[in-house]
């Protein structure tokens, strides 16, 4: 019995040694809730690496929105992701490679963790947990966000404040570089994943994944895939999305506005042309009326003498009677002298309105209207009034 005791102690020490090595390896390889611990003097830090990201509905199905989240351009994502058209929409779960700069950052006096510094502006209803799990798809944790932002209160975030979200990443060490692992891609292990399928996705061996991350990989853990070069992702064929109803309505509004403006312009030109034509016609008529009026004035002046007075009066009376007899069945004829005397020579004091004057003949008062030489049209209108009012119409064609 005494001889077996040292042998038993040796076996126990060996088991404890293996267990201690396993714990150290697992804690060193597997990121905890606060991130992957690192040494600031690590020579491979900082480094350029990538995180694996998936397009997700409803807000992250285009490279522009995802680029804004990571402060990148669309081309910086489309080129490593093997996407030929950066403006094309994404399908849910479409794979992407997001380039990040990974470095070892001190979070307090005794600890440093490896992460990519991504700045995010808090919006309404945002929390550390929601943003970490939904927007950044578990590439970080809310515990790590709290650790990196010690001055912020998670339950009282101000809209518009800038928050650092530490995206878990890792730079390869010298041994990994010697094994041609030039990059360590950050990948969030999904509930439907297994190591074999993940290895097939990145074109690596399963042993290379377990060597870096251990065998105790759980869903939503961030693991690191060692690759010698960035694999070409197999992208689905995306058909451009049809125009949204909002865009259709905007196009309809623009089209309708254009048609409306065109019709309005046509109507303006048409109305303007008709107005000009009317003005031109009226000006021509006024000119003709002015010429005829001058002739009648000259004729009247000539008829003032005894020689031509009888001829003028007879001719004028016959023409006036022809107009009157065709329109009115009740009328009286006064001479121009009587009319002038009744209106005091068409004085302004006798003016009622327009070309209508008040006159007194033989003690009776009349409304006397100056008319055109051809008074037929005006008489037809006045004839309708005659059926209501029993009045006489005294017409005069001479204008002083």
UniProtKB/TrEMBL annotation:
<dbReference type="InterPro" id="IPR059143">
    <property type="entry name" value="NFP_LysM2"/>
</dbReference>
<keyword id="KW-0472">Membrane</keyword>
<keyword id="KW-1133">Transmembrane helix</keyword>
<dbReference type="InterPro" id="IPR056561">
    <property type="entry name" value="NFP_LYK_LysM1"/>
</dbReference>
<feature type="domain" description="NFP second LysM">
    <location>
        <begin position="114"/>
        <end position="168"/>
    </location>
</feature>
<protein>
    <submittedName>
        <fullName>Uncharacterized protein</fullName>
    </submittedName>
</protein>
<dbReference type="Pfam" id="PF23462">
    <property type="entry name" value="LysM3_NFP"/>
</dbReference>
<dbReference type="InterPro" id="IPR052611">
    <property type="entry name" value="Plant_RLK_LysM"/>
</dbReference>
<dbReference type="Pfam" id="PF23446">
    <property type="entry name" value="LysM1_NFP_LYK"/>
</dbReference>
<dbReference type="InterPro" id="IPR059144">
    <property type="entry name" value="NFP_LysM3"/>
</dbReference>
<feature type="transmembrane region" description="Helical">
    <location>
        <begin position="253"/>
        <end position="277"/>
    </location>
</feature>
<feature type="domain" description="NFP third LysM">
    <location>
        <begin position="184"/>
        <end position="226"/>
    </location>
</feature>
<keyword id="KW-0732">Signal</keyword>
<feature type="signal peptide">
    <location>
        <begin position="1"/>
        <end position="29"/>
    </location>
</feature>
<feature type="domain" description="NFP/LYK4/5 first LysM">
    <location>
        <begin position="47"/>
        <end position="104"/>
    </location>
</feature>
<keyword id="KW-0812">Transmembrane</keyword>
<dbReference type="Pfam" id="PF23457">
    <property type="entry name" value="LysM2_NFP"/>
</dbReference>
């Amino acid at each position: 019995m005494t001889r077996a005791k040292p042998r038993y102690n040796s076996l126990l020490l060996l088991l404890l040694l293996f267990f201690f090595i396993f714990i150290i390896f697992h804690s060193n390889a597997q990121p905890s809730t606060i991130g992957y611990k690192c040494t600031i003097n690590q020579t491979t830090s900082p480094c350029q690496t990538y995180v694996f990201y998936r397009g997700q509905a409803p807000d992250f199905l285009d490279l522009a929105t995802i680029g804004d989240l990571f402060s990148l351009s669309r081309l910086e994502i489309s080129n490593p992701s093997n996407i030929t058209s950066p403006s094309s929409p994404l399908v849910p779960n479409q794979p992407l490679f997001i380039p990040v700069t990974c470095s070892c950052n001190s979070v307090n006096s005794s600890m440093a963790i490896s992460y990519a510094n991504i700045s995010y502006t808090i919006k309404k209803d945002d929390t550390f947990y929601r943003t970490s799990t939904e927007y950044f798809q578990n590439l970080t944790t809310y515990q790590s966000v709290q650790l990196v932002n010690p001055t912020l209160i998670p339950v009282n975030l101000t809209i518009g404040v800038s928050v650092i979200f530490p995206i878990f990443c890792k730079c390869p060490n010298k041994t990994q570089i010697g094994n041609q692992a030039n990059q360590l891609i950050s990948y969030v292990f999904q509930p439907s994943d297994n190591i074999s399928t993940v290895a097939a996705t990145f074109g690596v061996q399963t042993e290379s994944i377990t060597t870096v991350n251990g065998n105790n990989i759980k869903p939503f853990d961030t693991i690191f895939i060692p690759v010698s070069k960035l694999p070409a992702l197999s992208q689905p064929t995306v058909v451009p999305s049809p125009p949204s109803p909002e865009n259709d309505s905007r196009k309809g509004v623009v089209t309708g506005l254009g048609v409306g403006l065109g019709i309005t312009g046509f109507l303006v030109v048409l109305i303007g042309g008709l107005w000009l034509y009317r003005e031109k016609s009226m000006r021509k008529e006024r000119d003709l009326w002015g010429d005829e009026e001058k002739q009648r004035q000259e004729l009247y002046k000539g008829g003032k003498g005894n020689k031509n007075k009888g001829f003028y009066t007879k001719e004028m009376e016959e023409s006036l009677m022809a107009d009157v007899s065709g329109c009115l069945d009740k009328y009286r004829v006064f001479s121009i002298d009587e009319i002038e005397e009744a209106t005091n020579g068409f004085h302004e004091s006798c003016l009622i309105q327009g070309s209508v004057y008040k006159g007194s003949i033989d003690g009776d008062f009349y409304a006397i209207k100056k008319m055109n030489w051809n008074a037929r049209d005006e008489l037809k209108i006045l004839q309708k009034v005659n059926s209501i009012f029993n009045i006489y119409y005294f017409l005069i064609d001479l204008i002083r």
